[in-house]
Amino acid sequence: MITEFISMNGYGLFVWLSFSIVFISCAAFYFKTKKTLRKYEQEFLTELQTLSLEEKNRALKSSKVAQQILATSSKTN
Amino acid sequence: MFKFFSSSNIYSVIQKLIKFINSIFFLILIIGLTFALVLSPPDYIQGDSVRIMYVHVPSAWLGLACFSFITLFSIFNFIFKIKNFYFINKSIAPIGLLFTCLAIVTGSLWGQPTWGTWWAWDARLTSMLVLMLFYIFYILVFKLLNKEELIIKVSSIIAIIGSINLPIIKYSVEWWTTLHQPASIKIIGSSSIHSTMLLPLMVMLLVFLLYAALIFLMKYKTEIIRIKKKNIKRI
Questions:
Q1: Which residue has the higher pLDDT, A72 or B149?
Q2: Once rounded to an integer, what is the mean pLDDT over residues A38-46?
Q3: ipTM entry
Q4: What is the mean pLDDT of residues A30-53?
Q5: What span, in angstroms and rounded, lies between the C-alpha atoms of A30 and A35?
Q6: B124, B172 in Cβ contact below 8 A?
Q7: What residue numbers bound the domain in which B187 lies?
């Protein structure tokens, strides 16, 4: 029964290859996008660290996005 | 109303949406794959090769849908000069390219056992290839040009010219004699596909839609961070 399922009446190669290509491409694209997002989050935090304490506090106070990036990174780290 | 569309609100909505999609995605993927590979019946002519349809058709639909959105937002950008459309288009284009490429590759893998050839220069296949080229040109504009205003102008022109190809893709199977079969699913009128195949196709379409939404949100979030990083000293 398993062999029948894998062979798909002779079409197994085409069916499994199609699903595999889609799955691998989508997974690779997802991880690449996630990596780029993390890279930019890190760069943003590094940039934030270069500011003086006063500038940093002002940036965090006025930008909700900065607060959220900081919160996300402290959760993931 | 306008306050809701501020970058901080959009950012927090994006975070919530990403979490929501992540929480339901794998469940729907498993349901979709079970339907597509196990529960759906083989076709009476094509046999089990018909299962390729469950990845080929959603890929092709999303490839077309992404370019339609890009064209629409390019026109909006031309008229209303809202910068957000530029970032939305920049985030959508790679997703559209991925799905167009997948539609061509899986179509080729479906073509070999069904038509006896990997590729034919027929109207549907060639017009999909043209769409892929338009996506490549569109993305290259963002990579090669530096000035934002120039990027918006050139990319919008490419999108508007490329949109001429969209009805050609849709109606190519009716206008010309092609190897590709005519549409089995119609929005208006009755579809020629049986419900035992339509249901898995719709579940797989939902999987692809969720994946596309997830990637779009992550890319759009990256754009927001990139802008905030650029302007950090001005915050």
A1: B149
A2: 90
A3: 0.90
A4: 90
A5: 9
A6: yes
A7: 51-225
Residue A77 has pLDDT above 70, yes or no: no
Euclidean distance between CA atoms A3 and B139, whole angstroms: 44
pTM (2 d.p.): 0.91
> Domain tally for chain B?
1
The phi, psi pair for B140, rounded to 5°, reads: -60, -35
Annotated domain spans of chain A? 2-76
Query: Across the interface, do B51 and A69 touch by the CB < 8 Å criterion?
Result: no
A:B CB pairs within 8 Å: 111
Residue whose token pair is 């690449």: A32
- Please say if the pLDDT value at position B165 is more than 70: yes
Q: How far apart are CA B229 and CA B225, in angstroms?
A: 6
**Which residues, listed in sequence order, are joined to residue A66 by a DSSP beta bridge?**
none
Tokens of B128: 């999909």
3-class SS of residue B43:
strand
**8 A C-beta contact, residue A16 and residue B202:** no
Contact B92, B159 (CB under 8 A): no
**Residues in B touching A65 (Cβ below 8 Å):** 7-8, 11, 224-225, 228
Q: Tokens at residue B98, please?
A: 């991925």
